[in-house]
Amino acid sequence: MFIAKVVGNVVATRKNDTLVGYKLMIIQPINANGEEYKNESVAADYVGAGIGELVLVGAGSSVRVENQRKDSVIDLAIIGIIDELIV
Amino acid sequence: MFIAKVVGNVVATRKNDTLVGYKLMIIQPINANGEEYKNESVAADYVGAGIGELVLVGAGSSVRVENQRKDSVIDLAIIGIIDELIV
Amino acid sequence: MFIAKVVGNVVATRKNDTLVGYKLMIIQPINANGEEYKNESVAADYVGAGIGELVLVGAGSSVRVENQRKDSVIDLAIIGIIDELIV
Amino acid sequence: MFIAKVVGNVVATRKNDTLVGYKLMIIQPINANGEEYKNESVAADYVGAGIGELVLVGAGSSVRVENQRKDSVIDLAIIGIIDELIV
Amino acid sequence: MFIAKVVGNVVATRKNDTLVGYKLMIIQPINANGEEYKNESVAADYVGAGIGELVLVGAGSSVRVENQRKDSVIDLAIIGIIDELIV
């Protein structure tokens, strides 16, 4: 998993059916000091995250293990909202 | 998932059978400001994207979860056409 | 797998149910000479690692193969505590 | 998938049984302008590619979906021979 | 797959049960000219490789396809010992 900041969202009306119903958020990876690295990605929101929030992001087949998501084309998802980073 | 621009397509007559029927598009990853990063990749088109369009791209086993694609060697696919990036 | 140092942990009360019960540790990848590279990631702790310890980290679907973890959204995990690097 | 050029091959007599019978080709990733990026990798050849040819390469579990390959340790494969890149 | 050199090994007594019995080797990725790139990783040894040997390394779920390894947390493995690189 990695730490990111929610910086926006994507509007895409013509998309794969299995994405319907998910908010597609633009996330900016950040390190434990809050510094940005790499470019933005797009993650499906599993926990109701808002713009500006610090989130925990999961990738790959792991974000499709739950029954209701086994058949979705999601490969990146917001799986937690971070209260605190203790370093 | 990530954001990309469709910049061309690949012609490959001798290819794995499971790729037959798919348009193989050359995509250029871009960030939320429209700037290019990384090199181009090749994605199977699931939604009828055209050259120049801004698209949402999925990767890995997630792009093979739908029944009609479970046995295809596709590892990257265009899964949405982006109307708008709200940042 | 890769080598990392445990540098902190993440507090996230609103998170995917399948993460409940796991310590979410912030890990800093290091090479065999102990030098840092890449940015921190977040790994579920499978072996009781402490802050400052040198650990072995596994990624992807491999960290969900054990029965009790098949349905968890974990994609990165601490799977060993390193006693020694012999180079 | 990505675009690459076949630049050589690997000889490895002591190898995992499931690799027996496959030509293991050294491939150099290139972008749509023919420029090299990243380092070489090794891909199993699924389509009879020759040295110097421009090829389409697939990665991860996608290159093991076909029945005859489900139990092979292959994680990278040449899945097409490129006739033309239209950009 | 990629080419690497075995440069050492990891001693980890407290580790996930499914790693028991495997030699955990430190590997340095190299390109076809023998030049080092990226940092070291740790791979389970499937073929009896020794320190200094040139090896073929597989990654991801592909290194868990064989029955005896389906339930192991291994995500990187030495799957061949290279006799020769023909470029």
TrEMBL record, chains A, B, C, D, E:
UniProt-listed PANTHER family: BACTERIAL MICROCOMPARTMENT SHELL VERTEX PROTEIN EUTN, ETHANOLAMINE UTILIZATION PROTEIN EUTN
Protein name as annotated: EutN/CcmL family microcompartment protein
